[in-house]
Amino acid sequence: MSQQMQTATDNNNTLSDTPLLDVKDLRIGANIAFPGEESHHMVIVDKISFTLQKGHVLGLIGESGAGKSTIGLSAMAYGRGGCEITGGEVRLNGEDILSFSHQQVRQVRGVKVAYVAQSAAASFNPAHRLGDQVIESALEHGLMSRAEATAFADELFAKLGLPEPEIFGRRYPHQVSGGQLQRAMTAMALCSKPDLIVFDEPTTALDVTTQIDVLAAIKHAIHETHTAALYITHDLAVVAQISDEIMVLKNGKTVEYGTTDQIINNPQQAYTKDLVTAQSIQKPEAASPNQPPLLSVDNISAAYDGANLILKDVSLHLHAGQTLAIVGESGSGKSTLARVITGLLPPLQGQVKFGEAPLPAALKKRNKEQLRRLQMIYQMADVAMNPRQTIGQIIGRPLEFYFGIRGQEKRRKVIELLDQIELGEKFIDRYPAELSGGQKQRVCIARALAAKPDLIICDEVTSALDPLVADEILKLLLQLQEKHQVAYLFITHDIATVRAISDSIAVMYQGKLVRFGSRSKVLSPPYDDYTDLLLSSVPEMKLDWLDKVLSTRKMQSAGN
Amino acid sequence: MLAKAENGTPASQSGLMSRALEKKSILLDHLSWGARLGLVGLAIFAGAALFAPWVAPYGPVEIVGEVWEPMSAQFWLGTDQLGRDLLTRLIYGARNTFFVAGAATLISFFMGSFFGFLAAVQGGRVDQLLSRLNDLMMAIPTLIFALVVLSVLPSNMITLILVMGVLDSTRVFRLSRAVAVDITVLDFVEAAKLRGEKTLWIIFREILPNALTPLFAEFGLRFAFAVLFLSTLSFLGLGIQPPEADWGSIVKENKDGIVFGIPAALIPAAAIAILTISINLVVDSILSRTTSLKGGRG
Fold first, then answer.
1. Which of A241, A248, A341, A445 shows a CA-CA span of 20 to 30 A to B126?
2. Distance from CA of B83 to the nearest CA of A (A)
3. What is the pTM of this model?
């Protein structure tokens, strides 16, 4: 590993003598104090060193808690929420910015180093026009006159491929799409012509089909302006498209550091190899049996206000013990379909049949048995559990409610379920706040399973999790399916997941079902235009994937 | 207790005892100094109210001295406008103040939060109906409403408590509905609905535990307002009827003395202030415990 690092730095040194950013032995820690406990020091970033040349891009990759963002912010001499830089140096153009006074740091932030945050929607002020916000830092620091800045911003909007660049700046944040907003934020960072931009997961919150355009725009803009960048993400395939070098981080330590080519094609460390080959699950596709389907959705149309159709004439079906994946970008009506099936949103037309009998459209008309057989797991395990109930209470409630099991018997069954989700008895008296993200999702699975359902609707259950944790959850779901013969309706926007676990696939786009059938049928050509776009937008672990896709795809994504 | 242990109590028992003591000290350790101060204040007031006949030096309506005598060894806080002992009046007044304000606040919280949660969970027409009714109640100034109702109904303590409780519940309704609306949109409430849980279960098991924090905070404040409201009503002659007294009516009885530089009216006022502060100190510390999502464990 150190050899790889050496070659990486050597290569850089031949280009220029003083690197733009030189981080040596950086250590960042925080004092953590839980109420009622002694505060203790926690090391978040441990002895990180790297160099970055002008015009180069370094990808920082790792799962949540690896210290990626903390390192990125240290390039601006900033420690978030109680973090403290405890050692090492950060040299920008040869100057140690950690020793700077408050005034000097202000001259660095927004001028020499700019920041692009993950959630553009939360980072723009909704009360001001985009244009004014984009040029604000350039004006504030007196870098350009208002006229110059506005002209430059328009130029940047054009460079980033935003529609109607001359008038784009006059819009308010809520008037543009998420992908456009993310590009506007990149324009904001570029506007004061910084030497370095820190991108903190800029595409993570976007759909794959939107992500690809933002990615292309960022890549183009970095290239055009010769700005250096730190690109922080947890998606190795994404970072491979943009960066020249990659540093893999875990628990605040460097796992591997080398050129993009070396990391992707020739990873040395086991952890990096895991990341490169993240998708290891492959469930064989089950054949469609001859018996009637467990769930059939017939010609469903639905709307929230009675007029604007969110679902337009959707029909699909799912056999017992199998998995149907519903894919599509946000706004395609996937979750609305789940709401119709669960009875939260009675449809305008059509009906949902469960087993032989049609399900009553409204939740209140369904009986306990119908409710029991259909369970749901949510995307955000955090809010899907009552924070004031213990795990034992959460999992025990369906047992008590549907089967009348109480007391010791209930406790025994809860422990049994906890064992099935690989958590064990010691979790029974814990509160959700005392669990990690993956553990929370496991508890939600156990709660659904406790009802002994025939069908579980999984609404984006892995999208809030780190890739390796998500993998574990998928494996668990498959195990449980085999054991209990439960069917899954799997709503997701992640094609890799779909490929891994589904038996049949439904592709949705703007409320319509564009493609439905067995996995092998849906995933083999000829494709319709949208399925082609969707499939080709999934980042692949190849260096030239982005350029190739942009030149071959058939249709533009919706956000454009 | 210590002496006993030395005198040959079995070791296991003394061990048990010390462990129990340890546990208690841990509980106390969690309380801030403010909360301990508040608890002491509350304990003194509650003790005075509870044991009034034994701790009060004189009878509540007994005229024992001159009008507005200054503080002395005989009359610790002086005497009131009729020559009754002020300390005695305060102690007996604490009973009424505590009981009426406390009962009224409890009623307002039970009513207000139940209907507030119901409106939030049911939504739609039920919500509209309850909320507009509440608006209607709030549109009439509370004091005038209370005056009208109290002058019509027979004036006894139960009517007083009910009127105060119902009027105050409008404020609690608004707060609890606002808090619950935020909670009902969370997935775990939807999960409970999908499971087929009844409305009451959702209100008491899913929403209430998560709404306790702001409700506790409001309770302290509302109790203080209830004390003041009772005082106002008594001041206007519709609250506690003489010769009975609450702290508010003692302020009223002695207010004329202020003109002559006699502090008799300020003493019950100070008692109201100290009570309010004590309650809020305790409530604040309960808050810091209940805001933890780990069931109060570190």
1. A341
2. 53
3. 0.76
Q: Tokens for B156, please give them.
A: 């006894």
Buried b vs exposed e over A171-202: b needs ≥16 C-beta within 10 Å?
bebeebbbbbbbbbbbbbbbbbebbbbbbbbb
pLDDT, averaged across chain A: 83
How big is chain B by its Cα radius of gyration, in Å? 24
Partners of residue A517 on adjacent β-strands: A505
Least confident interval from A79-83, A359-363, B149-153: A79-83
Residues 6+ apart with CB under 8 A from B121: B180, B184, B189, B199, B202, B203, B207
Please tell me what DSSP assigns to residue A97: G
Widest distance between CA atoms in chain B: 73
Q: Which residues contact A13 (CB under 8 A, 6 or more apart)?
A: A19
CB contacts of A431 in chain B (<8 Å) are 293-295
Contact A401, A413 (CB under 8 A): no
| Contacts with A384 from chain B: Cβ below 8 Å | 187-188, 191
End-to-end Cα spacing for chain A: 42
The answer, yes or no, to whether residue A12 has pLDDT greater than 60, is no
pLDDT above 90 as % of chain A:
13
> Cis peptide before A526, with omega less than 30 degrees from 0?
yes
How far apart CA A343 and CA B214 sit, in angstroms, is 33
Cα A291-A368-A305 angle, rounded to 5 deg: 85
Confidence of residue A238 (pLDDT cuts 50, 70, 90): confident
pLDDT greater than 50 at residue A527: yes
Burial of A403 (0-12, 13-18, 19+ CB in 10 A): middle
C-alpha dist (Å) from residue A315 to A370, A491, B111: 21, 15, 47
Those residues with Cβ within 8 angstroms of residue B206's Cβ, 6 or more apart along the chain or in another chain: A386, B183, B188, B189, B192, B197
B235 in Cβ contact with B249 (< 8 Å): yes
CA-wise closest residue to A154 among A170, A139, A140, A177: A170
pLDDT at A102 over 80: yes
Residues 303-342 of A with CB under 8 A from B: 342
- The answer to whether the CB atoms of B295 and A390 lie below 8 A apart is yes
Report pLDDT digits (tens) over B107-122: 999 999 999 999 999 8
- Please give the pLDDT value at position A2: 46
How many beta-carbon pairs under 8 angstroms link A with B? 61
- The Cα–Cα gap between B70 and B47 comes to 26
- A278 alpha carbon, distance to own chain's centre: 15
Residue A121 — left, alpha, or beta (φ > 0 → left; ψ -120 to 50 → alpha)?
Answer: alpha
Residue A14 token pair: 């031949």
> Which pLDDT belongs to residue A310?
84
Residue A43 C-alpha from the chain's centroid = 26
Q: Find the mean pLDDT for residues A181-185.
A: 86
Mean pLDDT, all residues of chain B:
81
* Res A33 pLDDT > 70: no
The candidate with the shortest Cα–Cα distance to A84, out of A99, A95, A72, A74, is A74
Burial of A271 (C-beta count, 10 Å sphere; 0-12/13-18/19+): middle
Of A115, A125, A372, the closest CA to residue A231 belongs to A115
A368-414 pLDDT, tens per residue? 888 999 999 988 888 889 988 899 999 999 999 999 888 899 999 99
- Which long-range contacts does A339-342 make (Cβ < 8 Å, 24+ apart)? A339/A302, A340/A297, A340/A300, A340/A302, A340/A311, A341/A295, A341/A297, A341/A374, A341/A457, A341/A489, A342/A374, A342/A376, A342/A457, A342/B194
ipTM: 0.72
Cis check: omega of the bond before B243, within 30 degrees of 0: yes
Q: Give the angle A430-A378-A183 at the CA atoms, nearest 5°.
A: 115
Please report which confidence band the pLDDT of residue B30 belongs to, taking 50, 70 and 90 as the band edges. low
Whether the pLDDT of residue B23 is over 80: the answer is no
CA distance A449 to chain B (A): 12
